[in-house]
Amino acid sequence: MADEKVDLAVLGGGPGGYVASVRASKLGLKVALIEKDNPGGVCLNSGCIPTKTLYHIARTLEEIKKSKELGIKVSSPELDFKAAAARKDSIIEMQVKGLENIFKKNNVKLIKGRGEIVEKGKIAVKTADNRQMEIEAKNIIIATGSSAANVEPFDLSENGVMDNTGILSLDRLPESLLIVGGGVIGCEFANIFSSFGTRVTIVEILPGILSTEDEEVSGIIKEVFKRKGIEIFTDSKVESFKKSGGNFECTISGGKKISSEKILLSVGRKPNSTGIGLEKAGVEVGDRGYIKVDSHLKTNVDGIYAVGDITGGLQLAHVASKEGKIAAENIAGTEKEISYKVIPWAVFTSPEIGTVGLSEKQARGKNIKIHTGTFPFSSSGRAYISGETEGFIKIIADSQTGEILGARMIGPGASELVHEVAVAMEAELLVDDIASTVHSHPTFSETVMEAAEDYSGMSTHR
Fold it and tell me: CATH topology for 345-454?
């Protein structure tokens, strides 16, 4: 006999799973959420929140160093890494408690333990206190996420070789750090630890860092990193390494030797799809272990859905949350499909990067005739006030209709400004609608308006 009978059981309490649970409960379903660790998933516990906490500390440290330019005299700032790490941990703890309160408020039953689907509609759970439970569920959402991938010749089990979780658990600041992989995560950590005073080296197998971003954007970050003293080796990989004293001695392509106290692997992620009963339930997976779903987030098995990283799509917390909401709505009886047309994202380097929709290259690849409007922060009064004049706003639109196709931006507040364009795209506004909207002066958001004006050559300050 089942210990719990519910309308929906959610396997995994990350940003896909917990959001789906809350939405389903608000829609009147009886919900159980199964999570083996703290709720919040990678994002809250070892990803977005702790990383951006350290980013904020690094940014504040850099601002204090530049305060002399503003006429403020202060002694040279010094980082207390243990205090910074403690602040990170306290924020995680508060956020976890906040989630648990949200579950109670919304009647979501949180079951702490490891769950496995034993057959369609049934999940066996080994709880955190070693009890065995069985949950009978009319519907199941699988939201078990992903974990950091390894890369040869490294082994994550070796002391000093870390993934994103390991680097967030450091108890002291390393003197040197080799980052293998110059993607988003690698560059965010490079920015943070360089600002903290660590000597940072990036080794990237592709021709450039941040290869998913606009070339102009990644080019600016490359130059900024060089000014910060970050060494970057592209078209390269680590051929071999060995431990020598307190450091790793690495040889990269071309025979270059790099010595580093710690190594961060930032080379992608793998799905957490083993040991959760997919075979028993008959859920279809692809060659790499990702679960196949349709536009309703349904798997091939009736009553079983999957959301988030486990589906192999865009590995972003907010995408997982959106998928969780869509799956919950469908289970509750409202037919909805997921759309990935308007997905903004940010990279928290200094300066920040904001992206939404198609790039110029992507739009041209679809044979769309485009025109762009751009505006540099070097022409923004607000940027001069704050001393952050590096970067630009670029809006990409259909040259015949004015439909906004996307935006690329790098500069102060880009992680926030990108949403002005995202809302316009979701509402199917034209680029002229942004241009004709009065923006408060002096603000960073004026740069978005001026970029929209530049689309038709009418920018005042360009």
Answer: Enolase-like; domain 1 (3.30.390)
